[in-house]
Amino acid sequence: TPGRTLFPYTTLFRSTKTGVKHVFLHGSNYRVQINIDGKSLQFGTYKDIELAELVATEAREKYHGRFARNA
After folding, report:
1. What are φ and ψ of residue 65, in 5° steps?
2. Residue 62, SS3?
3. pLDDT over 90 for what percent of the chain?
4. Contact 32, 21 (CB under 8 A)
């Protein structure tokens, strides 16, 4: 099941319908949203999925620093 812990340091992640980490479908647009310190931060909605993916990558790098997993 999504979000269930298998081992102490391994978690199954829920995939988005877009296939891009932290990018979610919002009507006909794409919303960028990440969680920081238990709070959900939104970085806008975009018509173009490539732009949304770029914004998500930059947000991960800004807030997670060297721990950002952009792969």
Report:
1. 55, -130
2. helix
3. 49
4. no
